[in-house]
Amino acid sequence: MRKEIRSVYFDTDLNIEAYSLKGIVQKFPNHFHDYYVIGFIESGKRHLSCKNKSYNIGPGDVTIFNPNDNHTCEQIDNWPLDYRSINIKLDIMKKVVYEITNKDYVPYFTENVLFNSDLINSLGELHRMIVKEEKEFKKEEIFFFVMEQLISEYSDCSRVTNLQESNMQINAICEFLEDNYTRNITLNELSNLTGISKYHLLRSFAKQKGISPYSYLEAIRINEAKKFLEKGFSPVEVALKTGFTDQSHFTNFFKKFIGITPKQYMKIFLVKDEEQLNEK
């Protein structure tokens, strides 16, 4: 059996993350991110579900997830997954779009899967240069050319301000979960907040968001945990700050969703800070 290798890198020139997952057989549960994810498969095949649509994806296919796009994937054959991605936060994407279009907005990508995409080679080269920590301007050039093609061919400018339309009750639930993610929340609270029954609430939320309220809460906790880890907080501290019962629960949960441990994720930002200090 192949050994799993899970690595994450941060490029200080582009201010984006790069993920590398090799030999993975893990199923990733239904979740979302608060940033854009542009990924591609080196080897292996996966069954992907995203926003209530299903795809079988493999080598040569590109995946694109907007912030809040719920998705899950699992193995569909006996071959482990080798997967690469670049992750772009909203504020960075906004700057990139302005550079390319001279307009102030964030894009909504309408296609979650690009089959047999001609972007594969460029994305692979960009990912390799980030991993190798190369500094030449070719890396930035590739990045902007890739983003220009994605934005011009696969984004919808009419959906730039609200990435996922929903009604007032669902918005109220989302805001409540985002403001109270550190504590124990009950379904009764959400029902009282919206004035609708618990069952109707669950069905309506899942229909509009593609994910259950509790899974939405889990994703918020993981996304907030990443921010604390980036600032140098220890996994023990982060577990307490984000509503997890203990560090072990937090570590297992983080790895299930992100693919690496909190300590591995924190390490790349500690290395980055040390390098910046050495340069001064």
Automatic annotation (TrEMBL):
Record-linked Pfam families: AraC_binding (PF02311), HTH_18 (PF12833)
Alphabetical list of SUPFAM superfamilies matching this protein: Homeodomain-like, Regulatory protein AraC
Keywords: DNA-binding, Transcription, Transcription regulation
Entries under Gene3D superfamilies matching the protein: Homeodomain-like, Jelly Rolls
Domain (HTH araC/xylS-type) ranges: 171-268
GO molecular function: DNA-binding transcription factor activity; sequence-specific DNA binding
InterPro entries: AraC-bd, AraC_XylS_family_regulators, Homeodomain-like_sf, HTH-like, HTH_AraC, RmlC-like_jellyroll, Tscrpt_reg_AraC-type_HTH
Protein name as catalogued: Transcriptional regulator, AraC family
Source organism per UniProt: Clostridium saccharoperbutylacetonicum N1-4(HMT)
Organism placement in taxonomy: Bacteria, Bacillati, Bacillota, Clostridia, Eubacteriales
